[in-house]
Structures are given as structure tokens and as C-alpha cells.
Write a structure and sequence with these properties.
single chain, 389 residues, alpha+beta, Trna Endonuclease, Chain: A, domain 1, globular
Length: 389
């Protein structure tokens, strides 16, 4: 924290700066505490399950159904983020980061006497033929192992969740170091993994130049704002919808878009806002989900306060494919996606159909849903009102 202000010569500007500084420092401290506590909670849950699987007195009667049974038993207790998918994630997290045992505070029971070599042999489903082989790999990567306190104080659980999904320990260590060094946001970490930064670095002759380019373009974490992480909101019992929007501007546009579509009276029935979808080990959020009673289909809407990219369209098509496979019932038509990309000087509206093969239905939804020109005009007007008002 900054030094104590000198009240004898303090002017109004200094007062404003002092208030701003104390707020930023305290907000960041609260955020670190909540992030660390959530990360420890998830690691400990993984620890308990792992050790029950090995030593539980009645484990045999549950067998492969253990996680399903545990998720069912926890549901009445309304403990957030303890569904089947998350529980598997906590187990993998525990097995990937056994060193966190050293950071568990006194009073929180952990199985820190675990044999980390045995954990290493089976991390993320990758098994080594012998303990000796596992030890060779472990020894090679332990030199790059980041201390538990450093991990907990600099990376959120959402960061660590992305890193846990990486099977290669050396690759994981690379992204850990780069993420901490560059203070990357979760979105920046995802982007660097998706664009194969690790692989490109291995092939690059001038690794320093590549690293400089990666860090220059990467989005940075803002400590006092990263509490908007969806996991944090669930942990604190707050609404996840408040956590996942990219900005206050996006929130305001979604609020207006929601009202606009409902007022059209063309059959839009709101089902969810920031609908959570888990596909494999990845969790995404659909900004708005409607069911259209005339078209008899879901309408998924994604708003990006950004220019159009094919990644945006690919993300929406992934959500549509998931809805088509998991949410359609008898009598439903395939879901329709609506991608809205907006900048101050340009707005793009694009419909997505996830490889829809029913041409008659495509013609029908074009008549029932708002025209692209109508949506573009609406978004431009609202964007102007919000940014100028």
C-alpha cells in the first residue's frame, strides 16, 4: 500500500488519489483472498475424492458410479459447482498440482502425506509403465515447478482449470510461467493455448522476439475486477450472469436487446441469460437463450462488443450443435443462432444454423425472426445512446 498521506499539505487532488489507491489495493486484496480460498476448496474436494477412491471403507459398492452418486448426494445441500463434470475436474486438479498441499492452512484437513510419485503416474489419464519412468518425467518437470503460494496468489482457479487440461507437464509448466510473467487474463491464456504458442515457441529461432510479441498483444488481468470470474460468483452465491459479460457496455446492450425481442411479440420466450454449457472439459455461456413458440425451436444469441471473427461464429455453432444434440425434444425444429458483433463504426448480424439441412425451415425462420437490417439499426441506436449518454 502507498505511504500514509501527509495531511498538512494535502489538496483535493491528493485526497481523490488517496481514496482511489486505498480502494484499488483493498479490492485486490479481497479478490486474492476469495480466489485463493476457492482454489483451495476445489483442490481439497479433489483430494478427498481421490483418497476415498483409494482407501474408502465402502468404496467397492460405488465403483465407477462414485462421482455420479456423490454429485446426486451433494445436490440437496445446494453446494455450488459440485456437479459430475466439476467433481472430475477437481480430481484432475488435485492430481496435477500435488504441491498445493504445502499451502493448505492449519485447520483445513488435507491428505498431504500422499505419494506424489503415484499421483504423477496417472495424472490426466496418462499412465507411465513403471515408477522409474514416472520419476524421470517428474524430475524433469519439478525443476520448473512453481511454488504453491505463487500459483495461488497469481492465478485464479479458472486459469488453473485451463492449465490442468494440458496433458504434457512441460507444456503446462511453459504456460504457467508465461501466464504469471505476463499477468495474462483467462481469455489471453485460452488464446495463447489455442494459437499453439508453446509449439510455435519450440519451432521459433528467435524465441525472445516471439515471446515479446505474445506478451505485447495479450490481455492483462485486472486484479480488482477478476472477481467477476464465474466460479467466484457461484462460490459466493451470486448470479453468474453478472460475472461473464465482457463489459458494462455488453450488459447494457443485452438488457436492451432482451427487451427489444420480447416487445416484438413474435413468439420469443426467454429461457435463460448466460446459459452455462459444459462441453468436454470446457464451459461456455450463451448470452441469451429464447424458445420461439411459432418456429418451435431454440434461438441462441451471442453478442460480441468486438469486430466479427470466424472464432465467434465457430463458438456459436458449437453451442448450436450441443443444443441440437442435448436439448431438442419431439416436435422441435433445430436451433437457430444469432451472432451480433458491434463496434462504434460498424455492426454485423449473422444467423447461424449449425449445418441445418432443412431448407424450408431456413426460409421460414427468415420470415419470423427480425431482419438483419432491423437488428443492426437497433444495436447502432442503443450503442450511441449508451456511449454518448
Amino acid at each position: 500500500m502507498s505511504k500514509k498521506p501527509n495531511t498538512t499539505d494535502q489538496n483535493f487532488t491528493a485526497l481523490v488519489e488517496a481514496v482511489r489507491q486505498v480502494h484499488d489495493v483493498c479490492a485486490a486484496a479481497v479478490n486474492r483472498t476469495v480466489n485463493t480460498t476457492l482454489t483451495l476448496r476445489n483442490w481439497l474436494i479433489g483430494s478427498y475424492i481421490h483418497h476415498y477412491e483409494l482407501y474408502g471403507a465402502d468404496r467397492a459398492q460405488y465403483g465407477e458410479r462414485l462421482i455420479d452418486k456423490l454429485a446426486d448426494a451433494l445436490r440437496p445441500h445446494k453446494i455450488p459447482a459440485t456437479d459430475r463434470q466439476r467433481l472430475y475436474g477437481y480430481i484432475n486438479f488435485y492430481r496435477t498440482y500435488p504441491q498445493i498441499a504445502h499451502a493448505v492452512p492449519q485447520g483445513l484437513h488435507s491428505f498431504d502425506s500422499v505419494n506424489t510419485k503415484e499421483i504423477f503416474r496417472s495424472v490426466n489419464g496418462k499412465s507411465y509403465s513403471t515408477p522409474e519412468e514416472a520419476e524421470i518425467v517428474r524430475t524433469a518437470t519439478v525443476q520448473l515447478e512453481i511454488p504453491a503460494e505463487k500459483l495461488l496468489n497469481t492465478l485464479s482457479y479458472t486459469h488453473l482449470e485451463q492449465l490442468t487440461a494440458l496433458d504434457n507437464p512441460l507444456k503446462r509448466a511453459f504456460y504457467e510461467i508465461e501466464c504469471i510473467r505476463g499477468n495474462w487474463s483467462v481469455r489471453a491464456l485460452k488464446r495463447q493455448i489455442a494459437t499453439l504458442y508453446y509449439e510455435r515457441s519450440g519451432l521459433s529461432i528467435d524465441k525472445e522476439k516471439l515471446s515479446e510479441m505474445a506478451h505485447t498483444s495479450a490481455e492483462k488481468s485486472e486484479p480488482k475486477l477478476s472477481i467477476r470470474d464465474p466460479y467466484i460468483f457461484e462460490f459466493l452465491g451470486l448470479k453468474a450472469s453478472e460475472a461473464v459479460s465482457e463489459s458494462n457496455l455488453e450488459d447494457a446492450l443485452l438488457d436492451n436487446l432482451h427487451e427489444f425481442l420480447m416487445e416484438l411479440g413474435h413468439g420469443f420466450c426467454l429461457e435463460a441469460r448466460q446459459k452455462s454449457i459444459v462441453i468436454g472439459k470446457t464451459r461456455g455461456f450463451v448470452d441469451l437463450v429464447f424458445y420461439h413458440r411459432i418456429l418451435k425451436c431454440h434461438v441462441l444469441i451471442e453478442l460480441k462488443v468486438d469486430k466479427f471473427t470466424h472464432e465467434h461464429l465457430g463458438q456459436l455453432n458449437t453451442y448450436l450443435t450441443w443444443y441440437r444434440k442435448n436439448m431438442m425434444t419431439d416436435g422441435d425444429n433445430p436451433p437457430v443462432g444469432l451472432l451480433l458483433c458491434t463496434q462504434k463504426d460498424h455492426t454485423l448480424v449473422e444467423y447461424a444454423t449449425a449445418n441445418m439441412d432443412n431448407r424450408l425451415f431456413v426460409s421460414k425462420y427468415q420470415l419470423e425472426l427480425p431482419k438483419t437490417e432491423e437488428l443492426e439499426s437497433f444495436l447502432q441506436n442503443k450503442l450511441r445512446e449508451i456511449t454518448e449518454g
